[in-house]
Amino acid sequence: MNETLRVIAQRYSCRDFKDEMPSDEKLRA
Q1: Contact between residue 19 and residue 12 where contact means Cβ atoms under 8 Å apart
Q2: What angle do CA 28, 10, 22 make, to 5 degrees?
Q3: How big is the CA angle at 19 (ends 13 and 25), to the nearest 5 degrees?
Q4: HEC secondary structure over 1-29
Q5: How many domains does the chain have?
Q6: 14 to each of 3, 5, 24, 25, how far by Cα in Å?
Q7: What is the pTM of this model?
Q8: Contact in structure between 9 and 17 (CB atoms under 8 Å)
Q9: Measured distance CA(16)–CA(14) in Å, rounded
Q10: How far apart, in Å, are the Cα atoms of 3 and each of 10, 17, 26?
C-alpha cells in the first residue's frame, strides 16, 4: 500500500477500510 492508503488505514478500522477500497485495491493490499 502507498503512504496515503496507510494513513487511511490508521484512521478507520481494518474492516471499514477494506469495505471502502475498490476491488482492485483489495486484491493488491
Answers
A1: no
A2: 35
A3: 105
A4: CCHHHHHHHHHCCHHHHHHHCCHHHHHHC
A5: 1
A6: 16, 11, 17, 14
A7: 0.30
A8: yes
A9: 6
A10: 11, 14, 16
pLDDT (tens digit per residue) in 1-29: 578 888 877 776 556 556 666 666 655 65
Parent domain of 2: 1-29
Q: Residue 5's pLDDT is what?
A: 80
How many beta carbons lie within 10 A of that of residue 17, not counting itself? 18
Residue 29 in grid coordinates:
493490499
